[in-house]
Design goal:
229 residues, 13-stranded antiparallel β-sheet
Length: 229
Amino acid sequence: MKKFNKLFIILLCCVGAMSVTSCLGDDDDYGLDPETYRQYLTLMSGMYYGDSSKEEYKNKIYFFNDTITDKENENKQDAVGNISLAINAQDTTFAISNVPGKIFTKELPDEYKELREAINNAPNQVLRGKLDLNQVNSGYVYFLTYPTSITYSSLNYGGKAHKVTLRFYHPSLTLGVYGSVDNSKQAVQFNIYLADIIIDDDFNNPINICKQTTETELRKALYLVSVTR
């Protein structure tokens, strides 16, 4: 397995150009035969709990936070930790545990203040989805992610209970990658993009977070999942 050169390898490649091919060379072999596919999926499967011995080994979800004013953090990168990732080779699913809803409300305008506070105060969620391995190149395994929605079946705000659904782009807009860090840790990184929020199944009136119209919009909707074992 190849070593990750930078922690934000996907984040930097994909936010800058918003194109999967921008991170890959012309000699990449697309598509995997069933035996190779199963081999690498089995290699990736299992639990990723992270490691606190070094900062880059810790499991985190990274995102942009425009409220940051620290001059030492010009890119306005923020993060939450204490997450874990499970990959199941039997059904090609993944599950990210202990995801705080508050990271998904940062772009909600003040007119949705009560909704924002309700999501922020709700229990942490499990973000699930499926993987589809795309290619193996120079020791890296690239894959597509198909995150499913997070649904709060009964969220109380505005004087009554509401069903609130967070929908993500499906598949995600960029490839994820599996490799190694410092030749000692296995690592998985992939992006997810929050598309919109649906209240009480009113799909005709979504609260749009990202319509893929501008790079700024995509940047605000981007969440980089980075885990190790």
